[in-house]
Specification:
Blueprint: H1 2-13, H2 18-24, H3 29-41, H4 52-69, H5 72-80, H6 97-100, E1 103-105, H7 106-120, H8 125-146, E2 152-155, H9 175-179, E3 184-188, H10 193-202, E4 208-213, H11 220-226, E5 233-238, H12 245-253, E6 264-269, E7 291-294, H13 301-311, E8 317-320, H14 325-334, E9 340-342, H15 350-359, E10 365-370, H16 377-387, E11 394-399, H17 407-418, E12 426-432, H18 443-454, E13 458-465
Parallel strand pairs: 1-2, 2-3, 3-4, 4-5, 5-6, 6-7, 7-8, 8-9, 9-10, 10-11, 11-12, 12-13
Length: about 475
C-alpha cells in the first residue's frame, strides 16, 4: 500500500507529462496498474506530446480502445448501422479505462472520430457526418453511464464540430450523476442553448468557467453563470467580431450575485473589438477578486480607474500585456498589495517603475518586456536592485529585441543583489521569442549565471518559450 501511495505521488507530478507517464505503463504490471489511472484521467491531449506524423496513429489507438470499451448494446447499435471500427482484440479490455476519466473534451472526441473515420472510410461527406454523429453519440452515452464523477468538461465549437447535429448528452442515462460535481467548464458561447440550460439544472458548484465568444451568445449561458454558487474563476475571451463586447459584459452585470466569490477574472479582447463597454463594469464590486488579467488590450483608463479604485486593494496578481504610463501610475496608486505583476514599461518610464516598486511593498514577482522601445535591461536590473521590496525574488524577462547585456553587467547586478538584506535568492525566467536573441545566448553570460547559481544568489534559472497569454 505504501509503494502504491508513493507511485501515485510520482504519477501525480507527471500528470502533464503524458509521454513519460505512458512509458511508466511499460515498466511492469504493477506500474501499469497504478499509472494507467493518471494517464486516462485526461487522455485527450496525449497525442500532442508527439510529432504530427504520429498523431493520427495515436488517435486511432484511442478510438479503438474506446470502441473496445463500449457495452454490447452500444457496439451492436453501431454494427447495425454499418459502422465497424477496428479493435486490437475481441476480448474485454484489461481495465475499465472509462471509469478513470475525470476530464471530458467533446471537441477532441469529435476530432478523433472524424480523423479516423475519414482515414478508414471513403464515404461521401453526408455518410461520413452521419457515421461520425452515431459514433459520437454511442461514446458519449458510454461516458455518461460509466464516469462516476467528472471534474472538467471542455466543449468548444471548433472546426468541423459545427457540422454535427447537437447531441444532447446531458440527457443521457447517468448524466446527472456524472456531471453533478463538475468543477471546471471550458466552452464556446455558441454551443446550443439546451446544453447550458440543462447544465445549470445539474451543476451548481462549478468553480471555474472559461468562455470563448464566437458566432453568437446562446440564451442559456446567462442562466448557467447565474446558477453557480461557488464560482471562483471566470475567463471571457472574444474570438469573433460577430460577438459584441457589450454582450460579454452583460453576462457579468446581469449575474452580480455570482460575482461575489470570484477570485480570478480574465477579460481578453481581440484587436478588432472595442473595450468601451467596460464602462458598464467599472462600478461593479468583486469583493474577493485577487487576480485580474487583460491578456491583450485593456480598457480606457477612465473606466479602469474606477474599477481599480473599488477592487484594486484586494488584487494580488495583475496581468496587463500592453500597458502605458498612465495605467502604470494607476497601478502604483490603486494596487498596493500586488505580489505578481505583468506590465510594459517604455524606455522613458524609469521613474514609473520606481514608483510601482516603492508603493507595492508586497511585490514578489514581475514580468516585463525589454528593448525596442521598452525599458533597457541594464537599467531594469539596476532599478530592481535599488528599489524592489524585501520579498521580491522572481524576474521574468521577455526580449523584444536582441539582448545587449554583457557579462560585466550581469556580474555587477549579482554582486549588488548578493548584498541585499535579507538576501532572497533570485528566480530568473528568460522567455524566448522567435528570432530574438535573449541574454543567455552568449556563452560568457551563461558562465556568469551558472556561477551565481552555484553561489546560491540564483535559486532557479529557466528558459521557456514565449506564450502571448
Amino acid at each position: 500500500m505504501l509503494i502504491t501511495d508513493c507511485l501515485n505521488e510520482v504519477f501525480e507530478f507527471l500528470e502533464e507529462d503524458h509521454y513519460t507517464l505512458h512509458s511508466c505503463l511499460l515498466v511492469n504490471r504493477f506500474w501499469c496498474k497504478v499509472s494507467v489511472r493518471n494517464l486516462w484521467r485526461n487522455v485527450w491531449d496525449f497525442k500532442y506530446n508527439f510529432p504530427v506524423i504520429r498523431q493520427m496513429c495515436i488517435s486511432s489507438k484511442i478510438l479503438s480502445t474506446l470502441i473496445a470499451c463500449l457495452p454490447n448494446d452500444l457496439r451492436d447499435y453501431l454494427n447495425d448501422n454499418g459502422i465497424f471500427i477496428y479493435t486490437p482484440t475481441s476480448k474485454s479490455p484489461l481495465f475499465n479505462y472509462i471509469s478513470f476519466c475525470r476530464v471530458l473534451s467533446i471537441h477532441e472526441i469529435d476530432r478523433i472520430i472524424f480523423d479516423v473515420l475519414k482515414c478508414q472510410q471513403a464515404d461521401i461527406p453526408q455518410s461520413l457526418n452521419r457515421n461520425r454523429h452515431l459514433v459520437s453519440r454511442a461514446i458519449l452515452k458510454m461516458f455518461m453511464r460509466q464516469i462516476p464523477c467528472l471534474k472538467e468538461l471542455n466543449f468548444l465549437s471548433m472546426g468541423n464540430i459545427r457540422n454535427i447535429s447537437n447531441i444532447g448528452f446531458t440527457y443521457f442515462p447517468g448524466a446527472t450523476e456524472c456531471l453533478r460535481e463538475l468543477s471546471i467548464l471550458s466552452c464556446s458561447s455558441d454551443v446550443y442553448s439546451e446544453f447550458f440550460y440543462q447544465l445549470s439544472q445539474i451543476c451548481g458548484n462549478i468553480q471555474s468557467i472559461s468562455i470563448k465568444f464566437e458566432g453568437f451568445v446562446s440564451h442559456g449561458l446567462k442562466d448557467l453563470i447565474s446558477s453557480q454558487k461557488y464560482l471562483k474563476q471566470l475567463s471571457l475571451t472574444q474570438y469573433s467580431h460577430k460577438v459584441k463586447w457589450k454582450d460579454v459584459i452583460s453576462l457579468l452585470t446581469s449575474s452580480s450575485d455570482t460575482l461575489t466569490n470570484i477570485k480570478v477574472l480574465v477579460l481578453s479582447l481581440n484587436h478588432m473589438g472595442n473595450f468601451e463597454d467596460f464602462k458598464e463594469l467599472q462600478h461593479v464590486t468583486f469583493s474577493l477578486l485577487q487576480n485580474l488579467k487583460f491578456p491583450h488590450r485593456f480598457p480606457e483608463c477612465e473606466y479602469l480607474y474606477k474599477f481599480l479604485e473599488i477592487n484594486g486593494k484586494n488584487l494580488k496578481c495583475l496581468h496587463i500585456a500592453d500597458s502605458d504610463r498612465s495605467l502604470n501610475l494607476l497601478i502604483a496608486k490603486s494596487c498596493p498589495n500586488l505580489r505578481i505583476l505583468t506590465t510594459t514599461f517604455t524606455d522613458n518610464e524609469i521613474d514609473t517603475l520606481e514608483i510601482i516598486l516603492s508603493n507595492c511593498q508586497q511585490l514578489e514577482s514581475i514580468k516585463v518586456w525589454c528593448g525596442y522601445g521598452c525599458l533597457d535591461e541594464k537599467i531594469l536590473l539596476e532599478i530592481l536592485t535599488d528599489f524592489s521590496p524585501r520579498n521580491f525574488y522572481k524576474l521574468k524577462l521577455i526580449h523584444k529585441a536582441n539582448s545587449r547585456l554583457f557579462p560585466k553587467d550581469l556580474e555587477e547586478f549579482f554582486v549588488r543583489w548578493s548584498h541585499r538584506v535579507p538576501l532572497k535568492p533570485l528566480v530568473l525566467i528568460i522567455i524566448k521569442r522567435y528570432r530574438v536573441k535573449s541574454l543567455e545566448i552568449q556563452r560568457e553570460n551563461m558562465k556568469v549565471l551558472e556561477k551565481y547559481k552555484k553561489l546560491g544568489v540564483i535559486k532557479k534559472l529557466e528558459t521557456v518559450k514565449f506564450d502571448d497569454d
